[in-house]
Amino acid sequence: MQVTTSTISLTVDDVAASSAFFVTHLGYREQAAADGFASLNRPDAAVDIVLLQRGIEVLPEGFRDRHADGLILAFTVDDLATQEARIKSEGVEITMALREEPWGEKLFQVTDPNGIVVQFVEWADQDAPEDAAALA
């Protein structure tokens, strides 16, 4: 199997608010949109995002009332301090302050208007993700 694109679909109350957040602060482009739906992408390797309004009929009946909750959308970047400064200057609240974990991961988090947690990560050592996985 060869994966050519990855997409995460998130069910939210206000599609327009999350779409605007991802476009304005995270460099996404709105590829397609309709009532209760938006498809976002970036020109780099970041995951594509589909936003669906909670209750939309395209979802199976038992799934229509679910929220995008309990997940973290993480982006590994090579300029974490710059991204933190940019996000702050744009007026976005940092919901987890910049910190460094003992295994070499540096990170901070923001939260979009619908409660989607977005984490920015930078590794102090290129081998750190493998080393961290070995410790688990």
From TrEMBL:
Domain VOC, first and last residues per copy:
4-123
The UniProt entry, under Pfam families, shows: Glyoxalase
Question: What SUPFAM superfamilies does this protein's entry cite?
Answer: Glyoxalase/Bleomycin resistance protein/Dihydroxybiphenyl dioxygenase
Question: Know the name of this protein?
Answer: Glyoxalase
Identify the taxonomic lineage of the organism of origin. Bacteria, Bacillati, Actinomycetota, Actinomycetes, Mycobacteriales
